[in-house]
């Protein structure tokens, strides 16, 4: 049986990698077509567009792995059925559980690769891609973040901070801090031209002017530099450069912690956090979901039909995941429910189909 399991695993792995490369090339082509519409504007050249598309590939890799695993497994099993090899394997005493384990042995490394790509490769590549695009469009300062017209706002204890612009290298421009006392009266206003992160939760502000408002007088002072200790981290600002769904777990956790401390809504970040944890398991679920299709007879549909069915299932999984993520944010559903329900739903379908197949 070990020989048969290795044989099935090899076919599934080769088919999955082939389908994955084809899907990656297809989506890269679509991305390039989309970028060509901006080529020639400002300083955005064809080489910059190609570099942007290449830097987006790790994010595409992360998104496409489950669908590629589903279609690749469907293709491999369909070929075994078409050549009557699968029938011989089952007649030789190979159980459906053993077939499933042969597939899962291939799926576990692929799921691990999916997690590593989404955690360590895609986020930095996505940030660099946004920097390349900003520079190409003539944004000399390479502006990354402006949440509102007035800039980016956040609250720390009794201090309200406004940052006009965040650059691609996480340099802050136009920092204003409004500090209030316990009686909620304005105590001081500190304005800095720029700021850079120096580690340990500290920012070095330059060209600082401070206005202290007392009970009967106001004092203005200037400093060339000022060290500001803050809960603000570069990882928190990453959310305005990269969508939360494409951030690493550490950055998502930092955003959740700071927003919670300031009594702000964290549902989108929490859903993205749980999605990040459970998404690699979808590779295994999609591969198991493909197995019951092996029991369809040829007259019930050939290889082309099964690949089409697999594509539709993969698309349904992707859309259901996006739907529940958005509904979870709008309706304040428990984040873990919004992230896990689509995966649990398709897991239940896979188990039910395998049970029904065995009963036949």
SSE string, helices as H and strands as E:
HHHHEEEEEEEHHHHHH
The amount of beta strand, in percent, is 15-25%
How large, in whole angstroms, is the Cα Rg?
26 Å
- How many strand segments? 7
Helix percentage: 55-70%
* Average of the residue pLDDT scores: 85
- Count of discrete alpha- or pi-helical segments spanning 4 or more residues: 10
How many individual domains? 2
Sequence stretches where pLDDT stays below 50 over 5 or more residues: 139-146
**Structural classification:** alpha+beta
Distance between the termini: 23 Å
Outline: elongated
Give the biggest beta sheet: 7 strands, antiparallel
Q: Could you characterize the architecture of this molecule?
A:
By secondary structure, this protein is α+β, with helices and mostly antiparallel strands. It has 2 domains: 230 residues, no CATH class; 91 residues, no CATH class. The chain has 10 helices and 7 strands. Strands 1, 2, 3, 4, 5, 6 and 7 form a 7-stranded antiparallel sheet that branches. A hairpin with a 5-residue loop joins strand 4 and strand 5. It is elongated and about 95 Å long.
């Amino acid at each position: 049986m070990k020989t048969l399991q290795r044989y099935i695993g090899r076919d599934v792995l080769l088919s999955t990698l082939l389908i994955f490369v084809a899907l990656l090339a297809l989506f890269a082509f679509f991305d390039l077509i989309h970028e060509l519409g901006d080529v020639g504007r400002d300083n955005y050249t064809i080489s910059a567009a190609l570099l942007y598309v290449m830097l987006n590939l790790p994010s595409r890799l992360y998104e496409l792995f489950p669908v590629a695993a589903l279609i690749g497994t469907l293709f491999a099993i369909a070929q075994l059925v078409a050549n009557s090899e699968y029938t011989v394997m089952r007649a030789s005493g190979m159980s459906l559980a053993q077939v499933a384990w042969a597939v899962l042995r291939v799926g576990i490394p692929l799921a691990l690769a999916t997690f590593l790509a989404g955690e360590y490769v895609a986020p930095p590549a996505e940030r660099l891609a946004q920097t390349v695009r900003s520079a190409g469009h003539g944004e000399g300062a390479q502006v990354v973040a402006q949440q509102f017209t007035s800039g980016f706002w956040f609250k720390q204890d009794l201090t309200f901070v406004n940052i006009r612009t965040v650059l691609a290298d996480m340099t802050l421009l136009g920092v204003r801090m409004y500090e209030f006392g316990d009686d909620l009266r304005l105590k001081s206003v500190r304005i800095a031209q720029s700021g850079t992160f120096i580690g340990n939760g500290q920012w070095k502000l330059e060209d600082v002017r401070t206005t202290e408002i007392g009970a009967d007088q106001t004092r203005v002072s200037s400093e060339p530099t000022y060290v500001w200790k803050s809960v603000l981290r570069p990882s928190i600002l990453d959310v305005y450069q990269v969508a939360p769904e494409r951030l690493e777990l550490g950055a998502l956790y930092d955003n959740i912690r700071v927003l919670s401390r300031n009594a702000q809504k964290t549902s989108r970040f929490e859903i993205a956090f749980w999605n990040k944890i459970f998404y690699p398991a979808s590779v295994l679920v999609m591969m198991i979901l493909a197995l019951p299709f092996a029991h369809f007879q040829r007259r019930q549909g050939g290889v082309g039909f099964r690949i089409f069915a697999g594509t539709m299932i993969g698309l349904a999984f992707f859309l259901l995941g996006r739907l529940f993520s958005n509904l979870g944010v709008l309706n304040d559903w428990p984040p873990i429910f919004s992230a896990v329900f689509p995966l649990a739903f398709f897991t239940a379908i896979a188990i039910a189909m395998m049970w029904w197949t065995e009963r036949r």
